[in-house]
Amino acid sequence: EAQVTQNPRYLITVTGKKLTVTCSQNMNHEYMSWYRQDPGLGLRQIYYSMNVEVTDKGDVPEGYKVSRKEKRNFPLILESPSPNQTSLYFCASESGNLVNEQFFGPGTRLTVL
Amino acid sequence: AQTVTQSQPEMSVQEAETVTLSCTYDTSENNYYLFWYKQPPSRQMILVIRQEAYKQQNATENRFSVNFQKAAKSFSLKISDSQLGDTAMYFCAFMKPLHGSGNTGKLIFGQGTTLQVKP
User: Fold this and answer.
1) Which residues are CB-contacts of A102 (< 8 A; sequence separation ≥ 6)?
2) Separation between Cα atoms, residue A109 and residue B110, nearest integer Å
3) Which of A19, B33, B106, B117 is least surrounded, with the fewest CB atoms within 10 Å of its CB?
């Protein structure tokens, strides 16, 4: 089954404790992206990657890091999480051909205390 | 910068009735894409319908259709014969192709409209 997976689905952590949210897609997509969803703000892009070893900032990159060492994986790293990073996070991928549809993972609910 | 505005935070409709969700956007681009996504309580993001800006014909997917007014920068979603399973948050989104690639880009989302379908 073609899908985007994220782990963990739920995470409660404390300020300053480094964490990684993993994202993996099995569709051989070149483009991957991370978004965060906050009430009243919709989804906003954090980082994106056009291909392996190619990443760039989105609209709200502060406090986040990403890497793209393999085509299928695009982890989101919070080196020192803060309470304002409490949010719902989505990973998405897109093939880069004419389809233009981004496939979303199931979301990760992160709470930083 | 592109922006997307959904001015209706919440809406409700009776089962089997028709409802229209509004969306406006701001861009100076001529080539772009517009989407409606559905987010049910499971939080999964589900693509409902897509419209290419160069196409004048409004997109339709079964009970879902759009009214795309390019000059007015308006992109509303009409849901006909509403069903209980349509209860969800709906997001309007704009995509401008990145780096001239034509096919991959950042989605810019509106604030969302929560739709409640009542039995």
Assistant:
1) A31, A33, A92, A93, A94, B47, B107
2) 20
3) A19
Q: Which residues, listed in sequence order, are joined to residue A57 by a DSSP beta bridge? A: A47
For the segment A50-83, what is each residue's pLDDT rounded down to a tens digit?
Answer: 889 999 999 999 999 999 999 999 999 999 999 9
Question: How many Å apart are CA A92 and CA A23, to the nearest integer?
Answer: 9
Q: Are B36 and B77 in contact (CB under 8 A)?
A: yes
In the structure encoding, which two tokens stand for residue A88, read together? 């719902």
The set of residues, in sequence order, having a beta carbon less than 8 Å from that of A7 and lying 6+ positions away, is: A21, A22, A108
Q: Model confidence over B82-94: pLDDT tens digits?
A: 999 999 999 999 9
Q: How many residues does chain A have?
A: 113
Contacts 24+ apart (CB under 8 A), B51-58: B51/B75, B52/A100, B53/B29
Half-sphere exposure of A44 toward its Cβ, with a 13 Å CA cutoff?
A: 15
- What pLDDT digit, counting tens, does each position of B15-40 carry? 999 999 999 999 988 888 999 999 99
Asked if B103 and A43 come within 8 Å (Cβ–Cβ), the reply is: no
Contact B47 A101 (CB under 8 A): yes
User: What residues in B contact A104, CB-CB < 8 Å?
Assistant: 44-45
CA distance B72 to A109: 37
